[in-house]
Design brief:
Elements lengths: L14 H9 L14 H9 L2 H16 L6 H30 L5 E4 L2 E4 L10 E4 L8 E13 L1 H4 L5 E2 L5 E2 L4 E13 L7 H7 L8 H31 L4 H12 L5 H20 L2 E3 L3 H7 L3 E4 L6 E12 L5 H14 L5 H10 L8 E8 L4 E6 L8 E5 L1 H4 L6 H9 L4 E8 L13 E12 L3 H10 L3 E5 L4 H10 L8 E3 L7 H10 L2 E3 L3 H13 L4 E5 L5 H6 L2 E5 L4 H6 L2 E3 L7 H39 L7 H20 L11 H30 L5 H24 L5 H19 L1 H7 L7 H27 L3
Parallel strand pairs: 9-16, 9-19, 16-18, 17-18, 19-20, 20-21
Antiparallel strand pairs: 1-2, 1-3, 3-7, 4-5, 4-6, 4-7, 8-21, 10-15, 11-12, 12-13, 13-14, 14-15
Helix pairs in contact: 2-4, 3-8, 4-9, 7-8, 7-21, 8-22, 9-21, 9-22, 10-21, 11-12, 17-18, 21-22, 21-23, 21-24, 22-24, 22-25, 23-24, 23-27, 24-27, 25-26
Length: 788
């Protein structure tokens, strides 16, 4: 590309130049995907290790057994289809939300600035920057107005870097203060952070304790299955000289239930439905494990501005100080407002109030607002040759600690009002000591608009044992007053962050005991998140401004408002597109529903795996026929696991997620599976000694099936607690369905289930009752002995 001519250096490309770049393929065409493609979804759901095993067994069963014994294969097809459809729905929801939440940089072409999609940027485009804007491609600064860029997300260096014309800027960095424009020198995959950005924004079902735990369990299950299945095959085909086809069928019937195939599917479906539910509430989940992470949160750090209060403010009062002329002060404030092309909420309120009273003086120098120094500044060329310098910012920063005006300001802060001080200085605006010796001229009293939903949201967190910490750069007393109006516990005890200890342990102790912190710098926000994490807390951070980026990045879960800066939306895992703080409880509740319910139903699946493995071992050791055909275990799995697990996994659940998923599941699944296997095998051995004749094996199988069903139903009854009307109906209906199978002749024949006589069936029930009592005792003992 030719270098830009001086005449067109600040007007951007022409339409003809843009067309030439597009024709040459010099476009920022990095595909930022929020989800897997359809082909990837199909592959991930179809080509699994367990589907391969079941597929082979299913194919074998077609040649050796009737259709009833191949039902397990059709169930897998249905489950896989459901998984694909649900994830595809989640993909469409996420893709649609990603487009809504996509950052649209302002690009100057033919001298006209307009917002365009990131993917429409071409090489050589002139892109404007302001506070909070993310640098979307690599480039070279062309215009710079006191612009400072934070490159910490790329380099780890926390201090912002002052940029001048000719300096390089890298994609992935963002503007802290000031403004300017840069020319794109690298676009698409050539840009520094393009690959990182693509990977970071991809929808994924991995990297969560829940899914990692399930993967660990499946790994151990696989290793257990191999020797157990081999032993079962040898015992049924070699040692037992029975009918070959029947032996094959019973061997497969022993292997299939060892596979907890539905657990992976149900986890994916639960997560996908969670994404869809949150999507309907205009909540973009940029990283799926964030749903799980927020469910584990026990501390949420809230930035006051934009979270507890709405972005806009109103000027309530102007109080001149030290005999200042009120008309002149209004003109100064109006001129300061006109000096900043990208005003923050406070300055916008001043612009709205004094736009028509501006002195219309030429700006000789401007200093953008910085959350670090807590003030902005401007110098004007007034009539008569004067060029006074003005500072506008936090009174307790611009005034000496013993200034009498601070008492008046404290009184206003206690009412929840925000106060800015207009002061005149003789120092250079960008001097480190510009505020030293500044002369107070006027107080600007601003009224913040409270979010109508903030009080209810804070109440929800209190009910759910989630500690809320308000962390703001504003005056601590003012922040405390706002929090107090919203009913935040502990709001009356505010802490000025400038007095916080720097040592992490001491800071963590102060944070645990306090709830409202004011005058917090961006670096302090980051340190506070780290201090809380050092105490074992899972921390969520909400914010919408550039000063929140570092803390959002370091928090376990970052939550950004949709109207927030591009930088905050880029690093946050969750974006509230409707800017509604009240959506946050829905996200917490969705995460708790997913994690709590998957933990609950995982016990059902793994109990089946444990008793299936143990039954196979017992059969091999005792050298007897395997008691079940695939149809029997398909029926049992459907009624005691498959159908109930689907409803339980999608039910409401407000219990806070706890760590150690594998340990919490296996501490119940192992004893439950062992008790079920021993009870079932005992019934089977008893039936073998009781029945004789050509149909004895079917009668023995039916008795063993009855015991296993009743014990599995008791496991389901325990897992379904605490009971509600629909949970009771669920358990009762599953039991009724089994009774229908036993009572209807054609179903008896289809499932090869027929109880013979009365003695053995009642003995099977008695053994199941004893086993259920043992289950009840065991669950209670484990709960006391090994609490989660």
């Amino acid at each position: 590309m030719r270098p830009p001519r001086p005449s067109d250096r600040h007007s951007g490309l022409t339409a003809a130049e843009v067309a030439r770049h597009i024709a040459r393929g010099e476009v920022n065409d990095v595909p930022v995907r929020s989800s897997r493609s359809l082909s990837e979804i199909v592959r991930a759901n179809v080509f699994t290790r367990f589907n391969a095993i079941i597929g082979v067994l299913w194919a074998i069963m077609f040649f050796v057994a009737p259709i009833q014994d191949t039902l397990f294969g059709f169930v897998i097809i249905a489950n896989t289809g459901i998984g694909i459809i649900q994830e595809w729905r989640a993909k469409r929801t996420l893709d649609g939300l990603a487009v809504i939440g996509e950052a649209k940089p302002t690009v100057r072409r033919d001298g006209v600035a307009a917002e365009i999609s990131t993917s429409e940027i071409v090489l050589g485009d002139l892109i404007e920057l302001g506070p909070g804007d993310k640098v979307v491609v690599d480039g070279e600064m062309v215009e710079a107005d006191s612009i400072e860029v934070d490159e910490s997300l790329l380099t780890g260096e926390a201090d912002p870097v002052l940029k001048r014309p000719g300096d390089q800027v890298m994609s992935g960095s963002f503007v802290v203060v000031g403004g300017g424009a840069f020319r794109a020198t690298k676009v698409g995959r050539d840009a520094y952070a393009a690959q990182l950005a693509e990977e970071a924004s991809r929808f994924t079902l991995v990297d969560s304790e829940l899914r990692n735990g399930i993967s660990t369990i499946l790994k151990y299950v696989t290793w257990m299955m191999i020797p157990t299945a081999l032993g079962l095959i040898i015992s049924q085909l070699v040692v037992k000289q029975t009918d070959f086809k029947n032996s094959i069928a019973r061997t497969v019937g022993g292997i299939v239930p060892m596979i907890p195939e539905g657990l992976v599917l149900l986890t994916s479906v639960a997560f996908a439905i969670g994404v869809i539910r949150l999507g309907r509430k205009q909540c973009l989940v940029q990283e799926l494990p964030a749903i799980e992470g927020l469910a584990r949160v026990d501390v949420v750090c809230l930035d006051k501005t934009g979270t507890l209060t709405e972005g806009g403010m109103d000027v309530r009062e102007l109080r001149p100080l030290n005999g200042a002329d009120v008309t002149y002060v209004r003109q100064v404030l109006g001129a300061i407002g006109q000096s900043d092309p990208r005003p923050n909420a406070s300055l916008q309120a001043i612009i709205d109030a004094y736009r028509d009273e501006s002195g219309r003086w030429p700006v000789t120098k401007a200093l953008p607002f910085s959350s670090v120094r807590k003030y902005s500044g401007a110098a004007f060329g007034e009539a008569g040759g004067e060029s006074p310098r003005w500072l506008l910012g936090a009174p307790d920063v611009l005034l000496a600690s013993d200034d009498p005006a601070l008492a008046e300001i404290d009184h206003l802060n206690q009412q929840g009002l925000r106060v800015l001080l207009l002061a005149r200085t003789d120092s250079e605006l960008d001097a480190p000591d510009a505020a030293y010796g500044a002369r107070a001229t006027a107080l600007v009293v601003l009224e913040q608009r409270l979010r109508p939903d903030a009080a209810d949201t804070l109440a929800y967190f209190a009910e759910q044992d989630v500690a809320a910490k308000v962390i703001s750069g504003d005056n601590a007393v003012s922040v405390g007053a706002v929090a107090g109006k919203l009913g935040l516990p502990g709001a009356e005890h505010t802490v000025d962050a400038r007095q916080l200890p720097a040592e992490r342990a001491e800071m963590a102790e102060a944070l645990d005991s306090g709830a409202v912190f004011g005058r917090v710098t961006p670096q302090q926000k980051r340190d506070m998140v780290g201090a809380l994490q050092s105490r074992g807390h899972t921390v969520a951070m909400t914010g919408d401004g550039v000063n929140d980026v570092l803390a959002l990045k370091d928090a376990d879960i970052g939550v950004s408002m949709g109207s927030g800066s591009e930088a905050t939306r880029a690093v946050a895992q969750i974006v509230l597109l409707n800017n509604s703080f009240s959506t946050l409880p829905s996200v917490v509740a969705e995460g708790r529903r997913v994690i709590g319910n998957i933990t609950r139903v995982a016990t059902l699946f793994l109990t089946k795996t444990v008793y299936s493995v143990l039954l196979a071992i017992l059969v091999a050791c005792f050298q007897v026929e395997y008691p079940f055909l695939p149809r029997h275990l398909t029926l049992l799995s459907t009624l005691t696991i498959g159908i109930p697990a689907f409803f339980l996994a999608l039910a409401p659940n407000t219990e806070r997620a706890r760590p150690h998923f594998v340990r919490r599941v296996m501490r119940y699944a192992i004893p439950s599976g062992v008790i079920a296997a021993i009870a079932t095998f005992a019934t089977y051995l008893l039936a073998r000694s009781y029945y004789s004749g050509p149909d004895a094996l079917n009668a023995e199988t039916s008795a063993a099936t009855l015991t296993l069903f009743l014990v599995s139903m008791w496991v389901l009854a325990i897992v379904a607690r605490p009971y509600t009307w629909w949970r009771i109906c669920l358990v009762v209906s599953m039991g009724a369905a089994f009774l229908v199978v036993l009572a209807v002749p054609w179903l008896q024949h289809f499932f090869a289930l027929k109880l013979v006589g009365t003695t053995m069936p009642w003995a099977a029930v008695a053994i199941a009752v004893v086993a259920s009592a043992a289950l009840e005792f065991c669950w209670r003992w484990v709960g006391r002995r090994y609490p989660a």
